[in-house]
Amino acid sequence: MKRAIQLTALAAVSAFAFAVAASARGAQGPKAPTPINPAVTYARNCATCHGKDGRADTFKSKHRLHARDLTDARWQGEVTDERIFNAISNGKGKMPAFKRKLTTEQIESLVSYVRGLKR
Question: For domain 38-115, which architecture applies?
Fold first, then answer.
């Protein structure tokens, strides 16, 4: 009997704590999404092959992957934003697809970031 009372009290306390936490979240309103930082996204997903500065001056690029120099003004002038977006989303050649790893917003921010790397 004592055990049943303890479990009932524990359940009541847990329910109360859950209700208080839920009402506190509601009072604060919906949580704002974390802003996208394309420099961080690039550093985590692209810099290994394309280099921190976009020049593809990395060991992987030189010896195995032949990653594109994203700073090349000629390439920047010829390529469309849609093509960059598709290459990031679907991959191209040895470059993996990122559509399952990154959101559409992150990929769009990377397109703008890549455009900013132009020399």
Answer: Orthogonal Bundle (1.10)
